[in-house]
Amino acid sequence: MENTIVQTATEQIVPAAEAVPASVAPQAPGWFEKLIYKLRLDGLLKKINLTPGRLGQIMLYLGIGFLAGFLFKKYGKLFLIVVLTIVGLFILQHFGYVSIAINWERIRALQPIQVTQGGSIWSEYWAWLMANLAIVISSAIGFFIGFKVG
Questions:
Q1: What is the pLDDT of residue 121?
Q2: Cα distance between residue 57 and residue 138, in whole Å
Q3: Greater confidence, 112 or 68?
């Protein structure tokens, strides 16, 4: 191996054999961390007990809520037609004009929240809503802003 010299960011001269590979070197802060530092949000985030990752989640759900509200405003009539068609099919099934077979076990298997023994799906969803209240509120705010803009 050649005995070359590498100059590091701290202006120290280190032989190449002792230089730290780029994969082991600490990563530079990303754009989100730089933005938080520039806006001096660290103090505010510590006061309200919020991590940058959780803030990113809240912003993501705010954007998803905005998109959902915007699309709902633009395509609300189509959404209403689809819902009324499904309700009409269930009414026709109730009176015996059509037969719709739904495999409820497969639908329950797709649910991200599994119902505990003796509980209901609504109590499980309510518990999830309370545990993720900041995300739910940011989604609702995003939805209403998107609805207003759309």
A1: 73
A2: 10
A3: 68
First to last CA, the chain: 64
DSSP 118: T
- pLDDT score for 75: 92
> In sequence order, what are the residues at sequence separation of 6 or more whose Cβ sits closer than 8 angstroms to the Cβ of residue 122?
none
Question: 3-15 b/e with 16+ CB inside 10 Å = b?
Answer: eeeeeeeeeeeee
Beta-strand ranges (E) seen in the chain are 5-7, 13-15
**Residue 141 structure tokens:** 């705010």
Nearest to 139 by CA among 62, 70, 76: 62
- Model-level pTM greater than 0.70? no
- Map residue 14 onto helix, strand or coil: strand
